[in-house]
Design a protein that fits this description.
Elements (H helix, E strand, L loop, with lengths): L11 H6 L14 H5 L17 H15 L3 E6 L4 H4 L4 E3 L1 H10 L5 E5 L2 H11 L4 E3 L15 H15 L4 E6 L4 H9 L3 E3 L4 H10 L3 E5 L2 H10 L7 E4 L10 H6 L2 E4 L11 H10 L4 E4 L5 H6 L2 E2 L2 H9 L6 E5 L2 H10 L4 E4 L15 H12 L6 E2 L3 H17 L1
Parallel strand pairs: 1-2, 1-3, 3-4, 5-6, 5-7, 7-9, 8-9, 10-11, 10-12, 12-13
Antiparallel strand pairs: 4-14
Bound molecules: iron/sulfur cluster.
The site of iron/sulfur cluster has 13 residues, from loops.
Amino acid sequence: MVVRLREPTIPITEVEQSAFCQTDEELKSRTLLEEFEVGVRWQKLPTGYMRIEPEELGRRIQEARAALDRRLVILGHHYQRDEVIRFADFRGDSFKLSQFAARQEDAEYVIFCGVHFMAETASILGGPERRVILPNLMAGCSMADMAHADDVLDCWDDLTDALGEGAVTPITYMNSTADIKAMCGRNGGIVCTSSNASATYRWALDKGGKILFLPDQHLGRNTGLKMGIGLDEMIVWNPFKPMGGHTEEDLRRAKVILWQGHCSVHTRFTVAQIEEARRRYPDVHVVVHPECVMEVVREADSDGSTEFIKKSIEDAPAGTVWAVGTEISLVNRIAAENPDKTVFCLDSVVCPCATMYRIHPAYLLWVLDGLNEGVVVNEISVDPEIAGYARVALDRMLSVV
Ligand code: SF4
């Protein structure tokens, strides 16, 4: 048994989260210099880019992108700011975008306007010949950062010591580092997305034994409940406590072991916000992401991935009212693209995903200028052995859904 004790730390992304939260203004990009003034610690870039006004940035990005033509594809995650996503050749959630990236055979370069684990996944699926660029290397994901490889390997050792080889199948959410995906690939496990988490649970449970679900306890718990697994059969592994805070008996009794991670954006939504939306609009349909806490998912009318949320609203009749529990940039965009419906965010305080927000248009221009000068800035590459095992876990996912 490995005993590790260390102090829990609040990820910087959660501290930073509040810096861009606002209640009364539209979320519009300013110069990077002005955005730095709120005290964020983002990747440094040549100072000339810091002072360029948003309109000028837009014009220069357009020119720089056009010069690269088919040598480049730009991918934009749904949670990106408008000033960035308007340059995306493809929009989608993390998995859909990685699949796009893998299929772009003409493109030498992929600029992934998303967060670090997404760029890693695009690199793994695209293979060594596809050069993937993340415009700001500090654009991580607070949830993915809650599962450090060393802590997860310690947990795995503890589980194996207590329960024996093959007793647990690891499942990791797409929102995890390549190291964690590789750990799953190496140990008979699998990757899942928010759309196919139930199918991967079924696959794992069919093998007999238990599940270790990483890194989002809420998606893991909500999926377990949908599969008929009781709350008393799911325990949370705290990486800051010996044995995750459990006895061997606890581990033997549990069916699902949930890693103690969460999304700082989706855990902001509350049952009180749903009640308030229903008070204001008795006919409202509440749709939330399954990274929200169990109480919110239970209280909502429906829940699903970002693609599910987007499609549900697009397919709904005109005149319907939607309260949405997901990232604000996406909610605002869905509202703008569905003017015949009333669409609003459950949370009245406008808080973007702090790490997605780190892709300021100045970074996009910087990496585009680099490519036009023959310099690849901020390339994301994954160690071939890690990429190989991570690919095993990703391929297993594709084979079961
Ligand atoms: S919304 Fe949550 S899970 Fe998604 S990138 Fe942001 S912090 Fe990570």
